[in-house]
Amino acid sequence: MTSGVDGADGADVPAPDDPATLRTDVELPGVPGLGGLYARGVAASARLAALSRLGRASDRLPGVAYVVRGVRADPDRLTAYQHLLGEPASDALPAGYVHVLAFPVATALMVRDDFPLPLAGMVHLANRVQQHRAPVLGEPLDVRAHAQDLRRHRSGAQVDLVTEVRSGGDVVWRGVSTYLAKGVRLPAGRSGAETPDAGSGGGRRGGRPEFVPPVPTGQWSLGADAGRRYAAVSGDRNPIHLSRVTARAMGFPRAIAHGMLTASRALADVGRARGDAFAWTVEFAKPVLLPARVTVRVAPDLAGGGYAYTGWDGRCGALHLHGTVVPR
Amino acid sequence: MTALPSTTAQSGLPTDPPTPDGPRRAVVVGGNRIPFARAGGPYVRSSNQDMLTAALDGLVARFGLAGEQIGEVAAGAVLKHSKDFNLTREAVLGSALASGTPAYDVQMACATGMETVVGLANKIRLGQIDSAVAGGVDSTSDAPIAVSDPLRRALLDLSRAKSTQARLAALARVRPGHLAPAAPTTAEPRTGLSMGEHQALTTAAWGITREAQDELAAASHHRLAAAYERGFFDDLMTPYRGLTRDANLRTDTSVEKLATLKPVFGKGLDTPATMTAGNSTPLSDGASTVLLASDAWAAERGLPVLASVVDAQAAAVDFLHGREGLLMAGAYAVPRLLARNGLTLQDFDLYEIHEAFAATVLSNLAAWDDERFCTERLGLDKPLGTIDRSRLNVVGSSVAAGHPFAATGGRIVATLAKLLAEKGPGSRGLVSVCAAGGQGVAMILEAA
Known about the structure:
The complex is a heterodimer of chains A (328) and B (448).
Chain A: E1 3-5, E2 22-27, H1 34-53, E3 64-71, H2 75-85, H3 95-110, E4 123-131, E5 141-153, E6 156-167, E7 170-182, E8 218-222, H4 226-234, H5 244-249, H6 259-270, E9 278-284, E10 292-300, E11 307-313, E12 319-327
Parallel strand pairs in A: 2-3
Antiparallel strand pairs in A: 1-2, 3-5, 4-7, 4-9, 5-6, 6-7, 8-10, 9-12, 10-11, 11-12
Chain B: H1 6-10, E1 27-33, E2 37-38, H2 48-62, E3 72-75, H3 87-93, E4 103-105, H4 112-126, E5 131-139, H5 149-160, H6 164-172, H7 195-205, H8 210-229, H9 255-258, E6 263-265, E7 275-276, E8 284-293, H10 295-300, E9 307-316, H11 329-340, E10 350-353, H12 358-368, H13 371-377, H14 398-401, H15 408-423, E11 428-435, E12 439-447
Parallel strand pairs in B: 3-4, 3-5, 10-11
Antiparallel strand pairs in B: 1-8, 1-9, 2-8, 5-8, 6-7, 9-12, 11-12
């Protein structure tokens, strides 16, 4: 067990104001199974909900980072992922697949007893990935995940889960996932305050300009089983994605598409123009209720230098997601 | 072991090898197609192989080629069953051609027929073969349908099952959801948009009006009808399954009638939807063939020579990220072809631009007359300019005739070759055919 100080999180991230920027690395023997984590998460969520009702919600994040060493991609699962997302089936891991590999490590952190927000019902608001080079099949990867920047959101509390993937000591991939726990009240005066429209992808409802759909370049047809199919290649079997019945139990009228399914599909649509090193961002708006046809525009972003992508409901014009892929 | 017939041994040798000045000519002797049917029409039970064989046999009969060994036959289909891995060779074996005729399949979406002509004409010009049949066929009625993986696995287990119990067990695994078939669509694999939706984006970008599209569509029908009336297709077509004319042809259509149709593509855009079933090509079934040869091969047999295949050029565009329209590759192929041959867009007596949609033709024409497009995208000094519309698709095109994808190239090449022969020596024609995947093939023919 080692202790580590988090490195700079990049210019686009506000300086962490958590009480513990010094975190202890806790090494896990392997990547935990998401199924068990969700079961624990639901149980922990009930406990947290009770505490929240009692006004005893914690405002402190765990002072640990989880580390798993020697993570390797499975060839068959990689192929299935690449086929589903429309990525070339090369030995280079798509950036979305690296997220899939590392995601359980961050999730394990969120089901710890001392994690202050309930996993159940958590909403993925935004995701940012910096890829320095694409890891390849067979390459042993070290995954380190920690939580930071617990802050208020207009409809709850949000937190960033930071996952670093290293190879031979060098960071090759770094992802920041921003989640919202609706209805959770952090103590008043909590620093970080509300960041509804911060670049880190806070809530985007307040003050957001009216979305005007651009000229489309394509359309994604996502079947009723899109959530189950992505769950099969990603291992993310969150019940909100699997079926109408399980989604209803979580407050959604129908199963919703994984946010990372849509963001990864957009990344695949950008294609090889993204290069090997790039920044990939996404902000999620209205969830995609399955089955769905998502109208998309994936096109060069003349202002940003890379590609910008937008996905929306072609019938009602509601925004589902937007983001950028900028080669470095 | 019996000796091979002497014709087999002889026919592999070019009778008029390329001259030191360059390759010899490849000429179009003639063509034959079956009338194009609408999907679900009289060819509903006909397979690609059936239709290609019928078109091929009609060609063989017309030019007295029964028992002849042709240099090569190349054809293809866009919607192709996996069992048709040797579609063209199987059609040859089922035809009256000598079984020693080699054959191969080509697939370049809607430009398949064009590409078979290009490849075979080049082989003739190089002296590798003396004669060839180019062609294409497609059936949207008899299209391959893929089954779901669980159903496919169950069916494979069923075929391997030795006992009734095992067969029942395999069948019992099939769930209703597994029965949903995966039929081929005209959607682009990478964008998920149908060809019509892609063209609708281009139509909007070029501001092509509903009226202009309906005018072009009406002209296509009227010109095709007039060509039938004067017997133009009598030596280009063999009746099949009761059809003697293209089933989609509406002799009595008019701009007024076409104006009553509801738009079907581009309805989700913020510009008015203009593309209807009337100014788009219908899903069709049909086959076409073209007989190509060296001058000497045709002369030896006393066969006519309609036109020579002068040159051809393919192009492709990036339609994935809004940079260019899916069906605009012809607009890029044509200027390259013109430059190589020292010609301008106006140096042609006839033009054949495949009417995937009426708007496709109009978008191409608009682009060639647009200064910004021609300078920025084509890298030219000035616009290519306009063409004399009375020389364009003079006997109608795909909107009226229908468009069995791979068969369209053969239809156009044989039609244009005959039109040029009618016009007289030296007359020149330009072909442009767009294709899925952002591709296109252009070709120059010249009356022989």
